[in-house]
Structures are given as structure tokens and as C-alpha cells.
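Hey, can you fold this one?
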Amino acid sequence: MVHWVEEQVDASESWPGSIVTVRELEADYLIIGTGAMGMAFADEVMLQDPTQRLIMVDRHAKPGGHWNDAYSFVSLHQPAAYYGVNSEILGTGGASLASGTEVLAYYERVMKKLVGTGKLIHFPMCEVREGGHFVSLVDQELEYQVEVRKKIVDSTYMDVHVPSIRDPEYDVAPEVSVVPPNDLPNIRKPSPQYVIIGAGKTGMDAVLFLLDRGIDPDRVTWIVSNDAWLLNRAHIQPGRMSRDGLGSNMESFRDAETVDELFVSLESRGRILRLDEGVWPTRYRCATVSSVELEQMRRVRHVVRMGRVVRVEPSLIVLEGGELPAHPDALYVDCTADGLSRREVRPLFEGQRVTLQSMVMCQQVFSASVAGYIESRYDDDEEKNKLCRVVAHPNEPRDFVMAMAISMKNLDSWAREFRGWLRRSRLSAVHHEPILELIRSGLQARKIVPMAAEKMRLMMQNEFPEDALKTVGFEEGV
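Sure. Predicted structure:
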């Protein structure tokens, strides 16, 4: 598949007495990372042009990115219909939520298929340094240098973190037992108190794991530093998006003057949910739950809202807003890793480099497949980036407004440029919608969008500085 030449280099400065073997490779694309975004991009590039030669490099032993580090009871939070790669259905498709085990097996199968074409080489347990240079993590004498004919693709920029690969960012006394959620299935001795630290989707999964195994909810203490608005999974099901998706959101924008009014309207339409109806959420991170899961989580009465944890001591939790007594034999479950941190937005296409980022709110994998299609079909970076405005991962409710605006602008551009591909792409929501329902919802949305777009523009003017609007191209309207 690729041509390589071996060259021996003296590496005694780094590894005394050793000679490094440098293998020189050639490929059209060097893709950094074999997680969900890297796999979706590679798959689409190879679908568009089967003659392309690719090299994929990842620190993990198997493809799947952060799924390799996740807890065993993790599953997709949105339907499997929208996840994976375009050329292969994940699980049973439809509304099913594939387990982490299924996802890893899926990516191993997809990688085997891509490698089997003879056009792709996978280098696991390797790390990219600079340019086309990467090194083995298991053999200090083995390095590679790739002559990249087209692009280096960074699929790791979104920087997904899970608790198992990092230490807690708060102090922990030696006597205290703090574990990542990965350790929950390995519990062999009951604890008098389970303290879940973290209010994101990982924290929710940990709470649900304990409750589903019969733990008395009064033995669970849940530290929620910031409540967040939650997406209602019922409204993002395949075949239902055109019926109550974009149109419902646009009606809420049309009827609102402020961000708070917008979220009141979205909640009244059942689009979003919150853990406690008496607490106004200050975060929005795209976490998705069902009504059944929400009712289960509401059984936990010991929800602590005193800010972030500062220090955990025997019998005492020190938080930003005060102190909380705890059982000396409590088990603490750290769920505080920022799964999708908010990164600085950079152009997707910059010369020989592609930096994969989301272009539709909360749809990173679909976005990566779109980037692969656009990379294969367009030549000019300026034109590509105009089609690929980046959606920063939302953190606060106001970010929902900006993310929706950019997503709409991108989707509208894509519908004009390659509507047929969107319809064929299994990662695209429109692929799963009945055609007559799409036409009906499109005609209905035309009546709402102009007024909704004007409200959206006014909200952005109030919430974001003018230079931020210019950065994303909305100074003249949505």
C-alpha cells in the first residue's frame, strides 16, 4: 500500500547505545487519531475516492479513541443511527443506544474493512510529534517519517477527556477512596455512602448505575456544581426530527426576546429538561436524557449545590461554598473530567492541515464526515471554510443561540451545494426522515424562520460582542 525506506539514525542522546530505525512512508493523508471523528473522515474520503492512500496513527492499541478509556457501562447518549461512519450501520440502527462494547467492536470491524482495501495502514500505539513524524510507544528504536502528499488531519483537537485517564483536580486525603466510574462494576464491598462528584453525563450515568442496582437513593450524595439544561432524547429520534425538530426550535426563537425566555419556551415544548424544576440551570452542554432516566435521577434527594469540590478529607468535603460532613468510609466517584472542553475555534482547512471540529451543534461525527466530503470535492480553502463554519462546543445557555445560528447557516449552505449527499449520508438526520415529512416541515419552517432568525440575531447582539459576530459572519444577520 505504501512505500517505505528504512534508515538507521544514531539516537544515543535520547537512548544511550541505541540506533533508531526510521521508516520513510508516503501517503495522501496522515490522520492523527482513530476516534469517532478520525474514522468518519477517513471513511468518507475513501468512499469519495477509493484510490486515496491513508495512514492513521493513534496512541491507543485499538481504534475508537476515548471509548477505549470509558467505563464499561457507558453507552451512546443519542441514537446509533447518527453515529459511526457512513459506510457501516452501527448496531441495529434506528433509536437504539449502542453500548460502549458494541461501539469498540464496531470501530474494530470498520478499521479491518478499511485496512482490507489495501489503501490504509493503521499504526496503533504510536504518537505523532511534528509534521509527518511519529514514533512507536512500545519500541524506542522505531520511528516513522511520512511524506504527506495532500493533508495532515488532526482529529484529536476536540480533546475528549474521561475520568480514568486523569487525576481529580481537587485535593484528596490519603485515607479517602476516590475512584473513576470505571471502578464501579468492580465493587465487592458495600459502602455506607456513595458520593458522585460531577453533574455532567458521566455523573448522571454513575448515579443511574447505582440506582439500577438497587442502591437506596438516600445512600447517594450527588455534588452538582452547576445545573445544566438537558436535551430530551424523545425529540431527537430518527423519523421524528422533521416532525418536531427544527420547526419547534424556531417557534421558540420566534416567541422569545431573551435567552431565558427562549429556554422557558423550549422547556414548555418538551425540547429540554432539567434535574430540579426549582433550580434554574446555568449550563448547557448537549447532555441527553430520557424522561425515564430523569425521573430515576430525581429519586436522589441529597443533591449538593455548593460549587466545586476543593478538598476531600475523612468525614468532610470542602467545597467552594462551604463544608459538608461525610461518612468516613464513603466511596467517592470522580466524574469531573471535561468530556468535551471548549477549544479555541480555528479554521478547518489551513493549507496542508485539516483540524476537525464540529460544524453542527453536538454532532461531531456527522461534522467529520461532511469535512471528508468537502475535502474530496472542493479545492479552495476559502470556499471550504465558508462551507465549514465551526460550532464551538456550548457551555452556557447563551452559547445555544450562537451554536444554533451557525449550525443553521451550515446546513442551509450544504443543502444548496450537496442536498443529495445529505440525503444519502446515514450520519445525517435527514437520511432517516420520510421525504414527504421533510417537504412538509420545510414548507412550514419557511413561515417561521424569517422572524425566528431576526430574534436570533438580536439575542446574539445582546449576548456577544460585535467582534464575535464578525468572526462567524453574522454582523449582517443570520
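The CA atoms of residues 160 and 340 lie 5 Å apart. Let me know if you want another pass with a different chain boundary.
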